[in-house]
Amino acid sequence: MYTLRDAAPDDLNFFVWIDIKDEGSSSSYMASWEDAAWARHRAEMAAFLAPASPERFAFVVERAGDRIAGLCGQIERLDPETSWLLRAGVPAAPFPADGRYAAIFQLWVDAAHRRRGLGTRLKQRAEAAALERGVRAIYTHTESSNAHVLMLNQRLGYREIWRGPMWDAHERVSLLKLL
């Protein structure tokens, strides 16, 4: 039996471990990190998982006490002066007029538990979290080579809004779902 729950501060090691594994990415800026950079990242993730932030959400799927899947996201706003998405070339037009959206920046399912609907359950919970916060759009991106991730998103009603390199030479696909 799989249990989906809100993440808690004691899930920190799980989410940092997911980042260390760095699956689904052709290049990683984290691969060259030294101990100090990992310590900063760990502190940022600890702050992210601290309770009671209305702008952040994170969920974990467990089975028999083992963490086997997780998702992190946060509420953001497109701002022409500060939005890294706009600087990367993603167009503002598909987003709601108020610019608010939920961004999923981490979705991972253990390879032994994939293709069982866990990614779908996590994404649907993220969509519910966005709606609970009055946000009517959810954004994610993945590398264009991640066909299974693209299919998952398309099956859930996300549509491609942009394709190209973002912070390195690898092509990424930006996807948006209006809720």
Commentary on this structure:
30% of the residues lie in helices and 32% in strands. By secondary structure, the protein is α+β, with helices and mostly antiparallel strands. The chain has a single domain (2-178), classed as 3-Layer(aba) Sandwich (Aminopeptidase), CATH 3.40.630.30. The protein has a seven-stranded mixed sheet with strand order 1-2-3-4-5-7-6, sandwiched between helices.
Please give a quick description of this structure.
The chain is of the alpha+beta class and 179 residues long. The chain has 5 helices and 7 strands, in the order βααββαβαβαββ.
Biggest beta sheet summary: 7 strands, mixed
- How large is the count of helical segments? 5
Overall pLDDT confidence:
89
Rg over CA atoms, rounded to whole Å, is 16 Å
- Topology pattern, helix = H, strand = E: EHHEEHEHEHEE
Report the CATH topology name. Aminopeptidase
Q: Under the CATH scheme, which class?
A: Alpha Beta
